[in-house]
Amino acid sequence: MMATIKDIAQMSGVSTATVSRIINQKGGASEKTIKKVNAVISRLGYEPDFVAKTLSQKASDLIALLVPNLTNPFFAELVSSIEKAADAHGYRVYLCNSEDDRDKVEYYLKFMCNIRVRGAIINSLYVDEDDLEVLSSRGIVPLTIDRACFSHPYAAMAVNNVSGSYQATKYLIQEGHSSRLVFISGPQGEKSSEDRYEGYLKAINKCSATHVAKLYSDFSVSEGYRTASDLFKVRRDIDGIVCSDDAIALGVLRAVADAGLRVPEDIRVIGYDNIEMSRYSVPRLSTVNQLPENIGDLVLDMFEKSVEAGNKPQKNVIEPHLVIRDTSQTRSA
To answer: Under CATH, to which class is 5-48 assigned?
Structure first.
């Protein structure tokens, strides 16, 4: 049976109010009493009821962070950056891994409301404006990143994915001399992938290259490999592949090698995200850097500005840039 404040008070010979003040570091007790109560707390292994404590406070120091998955290195790196910044700003992070499942999203949204988190940083296709309105009505400050709709009346940070993919595709055509290209997208309906496809088509049309196919994949190395392997069974006349993220692109590199082709001599490949792994692939992956290194600080700064502004919408559009490495270079002479 778990120890309670009442148990601690009885064993310490003080009131429950005194124990509560000592636990919450509110003062009002002598050093001798504080040491005695803390000794009892340690002996009983008492842990404060976090939910009860949060509900009793007007403002929590907890921020919920909702992401679609942690298997994709991009989201793992994003979580790490935000957690580090949150700690520096005096917040703790409650991590919600939704796996792009609406039922899980609904569970986490309800839990956020029940424990009254201070804010919710959301990167999900399955959170809509009605969900954000519910959070806001409960005093929770929402901030969406990238994948969520940008047009809602709440704080939002978005990446100009059209521009990023346009730059990548244009580079493959003009500098890599690719003329027959394939676009490997994320799942159908995924907004960032659709924006990247739009930028890809814009560059294809601008540079008068040939669009061979649009293929769908999950954001994973294994699915990138499978998608490209299936492609090479029926088409080998392509010389450029634009990928919707780096995980897909890493799978494509393996599929190219298994098909007996070479990167970049036969096919140029470019990814999107600039995850850490892209620097160490063989050959090293060219990609689009969509988030600055200090993204965690940018997110927390925007969150705090939204809090100070009474949840008035803060909007920020990030302009991505190319990172050119080995996989998009021109053919050897």
So the answer is: mainly alpha
